[in-house]
Specification:
Layout lengths: L1 H14 L3 E2 L3 H9 L4 H14 L7 E2 L2 H22 L5 E5 L2 E4 L6 E4 L2 E5 L2 E6 L2 E2 L4 H14 L6 E5 L4 H4 L5 H9 L4 E2 L3 H14 L11 H9 L15 H6 L4 H12 L6 H13 L19 H13 L8 H24 L6 H14 L5 H11 L22 H13 L20 H4 L14 H5 L18 H11 L6 H13 L7 H17 L5 H4 L3
Parallel strand pairs: 1-2, 3-9, 9-10
Antiparallel strand pairs: 3-6, 4-5, 5-8, 6-7
Helix pairs in contact: 2-4, 2-22, 4-22, 5-7, 8-13, 8-14, 8-16, 11-12, 11-14, 12-13, 13-14, 15-16
């Protein structure tokens, strides 16, 4: 018996593989593609055989794979922390309720991203227990400290919920106290405009307890019965034609130019396409199937309203529903489309917001209901007319030469003795003050604190000594403009972090720390290999 055991032992040792398979690239790809350890064993063995390898010579076992995956995740996370260099960064965060990775209950996840001129960097997606402003601030500060970013964060971008914006208990306020300095607030402009659209929609179709809008649900269920070639654009409604106020060609040209750009989301492109169809540009029309109707998806509300109105002669509507949809569609086409697609440009923010307030106030002569609700909602979110953000105006090509001159002169002539220690984060306007407010111009928002914007982002104010007419040929201005256009004023980057956490929430590992390491591997891999094409996947 003793003699028989030795040959089998030596044979086992002899057959043990010696060639390493699970390299850093391989295990990173397995993580990115959500391949479990068991599935990876089947795939790697089959691929090795297909390539003509003797699998007995290869180290292919679950223990080696698990160990290499852990080491790779840990190494990536440590390398990212060590190598991350942020210059005048903006901190983004966005909460999402997701299932707990180890149980059935749900927990709040907080993906946190830092952006600067060099791109975006996910620094974590920790779970919260109460999701209060205090807990969010504590969590943000811990991540900032962990990644050694305390001296490199100058601004923050977030959704405008009271949990984030509260003057006393808001996460942003409490984070400033922990950092012992003021941050520039750059609330998500997409979120602001979603609030605006929601206000307009709900003044005609109030929210009920159901998650779905019943009108949209009816349309979705009847979609198969609708003749997609039989629709009527908005211009066939004389009243709607008047509401658009001879802006049809301008809006069509805007949509045409936007569609030439790279559009990252299908629903954004669909909004441009539907707007063009509504205004009579119906060459090569192809309608998409109506999507989700959940209240949280406000872009979907705009798409549904436009689509239903186009098919108003086929889809049964009450007189109230048809008239209400007409009013909402006119608002979307005349105002909302341009607002939405321009809102990612930080330099355009002050002029766009002030101009909108003036235009929507004038719109009361066309639709008083929409004018009043839009003013009420939007006047609560005039963050980009604050004393620091008003400096963004200097980099907006749409702002006149005379206005830039006025702003520069006011910055130069303001006495620094008037400088306030407490920065005004946003402009507050009551309904009773709107008539006075619409007479203001951009330079009226400049204060002694406006100059702080330049120091915050490491911008030399030297170009202010040059006439605005020659700024395009001034090096300091061009450098400053390059910094400004790369400031992120929408929270899409944090929303991508939410989506990433949703994808990997309950797969590959149930360990909380390992989950954070995993997210670093996946984000790194996606940056390095951002396409599925063979040419981009092959290393140079």
């Amino acid at each position: 018996m003793e003699e028989d055991s030795h040959p089998s032992c030596s044979t086992s040792i002899k057959n043990r593989g010696t060639k390493y398979v699970f390299t850093e690239r391989v295990v990173s790809a397995l993580d990115k593609c959500k391949i479990s350890d068991r599935s990876a064993m089947h795939i790697v063995t089959a691929v090795a055989e297909a390539l003509g390898h003797n699998t007995n010579e290869l180290i292919i076992n679950r223990t080696s794979l698990q160990r290499q995956r852990h080491l790779n995740r840990l190494k990536k996370s440590e390398n990212n922390k060590e190598n991350l260099k942020i210059h005048c960064g903006t901190l983004h965060w966005d909460g999402k309720l997701l299932p707990e990775i180890t149980g059935r209950e749900k927990v709040e996840r907080l993906p946190v991203v830092v952006t600067d001129r060099n791109g975006e960097h996910l620094i974590g997606a920790p779970k919260l227990y109460a999701a209060t402003g205090s807990e969010i601030a504590d969590t943000l500060y811990e991540l900032i400290f962990e990644w050694d970013l305390k001296d490199h964060i100058v601004a923050c971008c977030f959704d405008t919920t009271s949990t984030n914006t509260g003057v006393i208990k808001g996460a942003a306020t409490l984070l400033e106290k922990k950092l012992e300095r003021k941050l520039l607030y750059l609330p998500c402009r997409h979120h602001i405009y979603e609030i605006l659209l929601r206000g307009v929609f709900e003044c005609y179709f109030p929210v009920n307890t159901s998650k779905d809008v019943q009108l949209f649900r009816r349309f979705q269920e009847n979609w198969e019965n609708i003749d997609k070639n039989n629709f009527k654009d908005l211009l066939q409604n004389n009243e709607l034609n008047l509401r658009l106020n001879d802006n049809v060609d301008t809006i069509l040209n805007f949509c045409k130019e936007e569609m030439k750009k790279k559009i990252v989301r299908d629903d954004y492109r669909e909004l441009l396409e539907l707007t063009s169809i509504c205004l009579g540009a119906n060459n090569g029309v192809k309608f998409r199937v109506p999507g989700p109707t959940h209240h949280a998806r406000w872009m979907a509300k705009a798409l549904y309203c436009l689509k239903i109105y186009l098919f108003r002669e086929q889809f049964k509507l009450t007189e109230y529903e048809e008239n209400s949809l007409a009013s909402i569609c006119a608002f979307i086409i005349r105002f909302y489309v341009k607002l939405w697609f321009n809102c990612t440009n930080p330099s355009k923010a002050p002029l766009q917001d002030l101009s909108f307030i003036k235009e929507i106030h004038e719109y009361r002569n066309v639709n008083k209901i929409i004018s009043e609700i839009a003013i009420k909602k939007f006047c609560k979110h005039l963050w980009y007319l604050s004393e620091e953000c008003i400096a963004l105006t200097l980099f907006d090509d749409d702002v006149s030469y005379a206005m830039k001159q006025n702003i520069v002169e006011k910055i130069k002539n303001i006495d620094n003795c008037d400088k306030e220690t407490e920065n005004v984060k946003r402009v507050h306007v009551r309904s009773s003050e709107i008539n006075e407010f619409i007479r203001k111009e951009l330079h009226d928002f400049v204060t002694a604190n406006t100059i702080d914007f330049f120091g915050r982002f490491g911008i030399s104010p030297q170009f202010l000594q040059v006439d605005p007419l020659y700024w395009k040929d001034t090096e300091t201005y061009q450098k400053a403009k390059d910094i400004v256009i790369n400031i992120k004023v929408v929270n899409d980057t944090a929303e991508r972090g939410v989506k990433l956490m949703e994808e990997y929430n309950r797969i590959l590992t149930n360990d909380e720390q390992e989950k954070q390491y995993l997210l670093q591997v996946v984000t790194d891999y996606k940056k390095q290999f951002d396409s599925h094409n063979k040419s981009s996947l092959i290393r140079s």
